[in-house]
C-alpha cells in the first residue's frame, strides 16, 4: 500500500553557486494515520491502528514530561518504595534495557497527563479492555499481542503478534525496589486508580495465551503504552 508524504516543507538558499538546505520537514501518514510519534526526548515510536485506536507499538521511554519537567529516576530502593510522586526506572539500570524495553514507571507517573507526548495519553483501563476484546477477549488476546521475539522465554504460549502490538517481556520494578520477570512477563499500567493505594494494570505472561487485569500498589514500576487523543 502506497505511503503518502504530507506537510513537506523545504527552504533552500543559493549563495555563490552553492545550495544550502536550511529546513526540511516530512510527516508520514498511511491512509491518513500517522506512522510514528516522537516524545519530548526525541524518541520515535512506531504507530499502528489496532481496532479503533492509534497505539504506540513500543513501550514509552521518555525521561521527561511533555512540559519539559524531568521525571525523577535512579531512586534507591528505599526512596522508590516511599515515593508518592512520579518516578521511572530502567530494568537493572542497564541502558540496553531502556532501548529494548522502555522505562518502568510508577503509577504516579502513569497517572500524570503530561507523561505522554502532546496529543497522546496513557491508555486507560477501558481502552485496554477495548483492545483485548477486539483481539478475542482475555482468554485469547495474549497470543495476538505478544511479540514472537526470542526475548520472550519459552514457551511464549500462542504468540503470533497478529495485532502488530509488539508486546515484549519488560518485567517490573517491585514496590520495594527490586527487579523481576524480565523475559517472562509484560505489565502495563492503566492510567486509572483502583483505590487509594492501587492502580489498574494489565499483564501478559510467557506461559499463558490469556491476558489478566488486576490492581497493584502504586509504587510498582510497569511499562506504559500511549494512545492518540
Distance between the termini: 25 Å
Strands, count: 15
Strand order of the largest sheet: 1-2-3
Point out poorly predicted stretches. Answer: 1-27
Shape: globular
Output the helix-strand order: EEEEEEHEHEHEHHEEEEEE
In total, the number of domains comes to 1
Tell me the radius of gyration: 19 Å
Instruction: Kindly estimate the percentage of residues that lie in beta strands according to DSSP.
Output: 25-35%
Report the biggest beta sheet as strand number plus sense, adding barrel if it closes: 3 strands, antiparallel
Give average pLDDT, whole number: 90
Query: Based on helices, strands and strand pairing, what is the structural class?
Result: alpha+beta
Summarize the amount of helix as a percent range: 10-25%
Number of helices in the DSSP assignment: 5
In short:
The protein contains five helices and 15 strands.
Task: Describe the protein in words.
This protein is α+β, with helices and mostly antiparallel strands and 229 residues long. It has one domain. 14% of the residues lie in helices and 34% in strands. It is built from five helices and 15 strands. A hairpin with a 5-residue loop joins strand 13 and strand 14 (211-217).
